[in-house]
Amino acid sequence: MQKIKITVAEKIADRIKAEFPTAEISGADVLGMFEYPPDPAMGDLALPCFKLSKSLRRSPMQIADVIAEGVEGEEIEKVESVKGYINVFLSDSYLAGKTVSEILSAGENYGKNEDGEGKTVVLDYSSPNVAKPFHLGHLGTTVIGHSLRRLFEFSGYKCIGINHLGDWGTSFGKQIVAYKLWGNKKMIDEMGVDGLVALYQRFHEEAENKPEMFDDARAEFTKLENGDPENTELWKWFIGISIEEYKRTYGQLDIEFDYYTGESFYTDKMPAQVEKIRQSGILKIDDGASIVDLSEYNMPPCLILKRDGSTLYPTRDISAAVYRKETFDFDKCIYVTSAGQSLHFAQWFKVVELMGYDWADKLVHVPYGTMSINGAKLGTRSGNVVWLKQLLAMSVEKVLGVINEKNPDLPNKEQVAEEVGVGAIVFNYLSNSRIKDISFDLEEALDFNGNTGPYVQYTYARCCSILAKAGESAKSELTVTAPTESALVKVLAKFPEKVREARNVYEPSVIVRYVLDVAAAFNRFYHDCQILSAEDEAVRNTRIALTAATKTVLGNAFGLICLKKPEKI
Ligand code: ARG
Question: Which of 71, 158, 177, 307 has the fewest CB atoms within 10 Å distance of its CB?
Answer without folding.
Answer: 307
